[in-house]
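SAMPLE LOG
Freezer: B-3
Tube label: C17
Construct: single chain, 370 aa
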Amino acid sequence: MLRPLLRASAAVAFAALLAPAVPDAAPAPGIAYDEIVRVVVGATPPPPGNFQADMNALSVAAAASPTPAPRKRGISLGNIASVIAGGGGAGSIAGAVASDAMANAVDNAVQQSLGAQFGALAAAARGFLSPHLIRYAYWNGWERADDVTAQTATIRKCDAGQVIHLDLAHKTYTVYDPNSEPVPTAPPMPAPRRGRPAPSEPQQPGTGVASLTATTRALGAQRIESYPTSGFDSTVTFAMTQSTGSCRDGSASLQEVEYLSALPRPTVNACPIRRPPVPTTAGEVVMPSAPSGGCRPTFSAKRSGPTPPSNRLALYSLVTISGSGATPAPQPSGASSGLGFLTERGNLRALGASDAGLFAIPSDFTKAAP
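STRUCTURE (predicted):
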């Protein structure tokens, strides 16, 4: 229903309002931190400042199931202007493995509202219904990311022409050129288990009136992981009215709650732009401006409220995508009514020259067979 709306040429302004242009940040001082990422659907997200409790829950879950199957990660969630997900299912997300009902709800919500071509979104969401721990380290413009569940690590030293993949379980390594690093592919989208199939998209030209409103409010200061942070709640609403032809009336919203520290967001020297495994900001949930089906709406946009500081490390980020493309199931009090992507960061520590070994191939590792 909303695919023509979401693919309209207004997406350029949509992206501009979500992520205003900022200069590139200089490489941050050496820093390491743990990151918990998960998808929230039909559940109440943990509040800011809950990182240590969630880490403890992960430890309990790991002790109960010490050899989980590795999960794929790193599927790009770019090229999406908005996702209309009604959610469904029940149960807590605090460290437990997501039930089939919850995973099916994600698949169905995405497919019914946007169609099977967005299967990568549901595939990524499935992979993070259970909280997922990733450890990051940055120094000298380099990055190391350890996927604790999969027992792998990736070291990016792009200014030295190296991307090193480590298999920590088998003590092997592979080195790639930064421009030829393998990218995971999404598994096929399963068929909907209930509900009507997504309608076909008309191809005749159409017009409409599209409006975009971005509103930000300050949430005040909060200390997280012993660091002072500033909170912001930003909501972007996108609506199409008076539609004809291939355009369709509808609305969607994207909310971002973030608590920003004063620490600069780490960057990596000379690396191709990569998307995180799940969106950590509203600006990472946008699509290109290519129109579809001949829909050519007139467009207006406005922004109000304070502008959050740019290039700051968020210790808490919740990006929730919702709208009128699917009928939501009844939700528990406080539960998310859409599809939420939650990132929590903690256990921060400074890195220096003595930590350079983190970014080198261990001496007891052997090169993987081609």
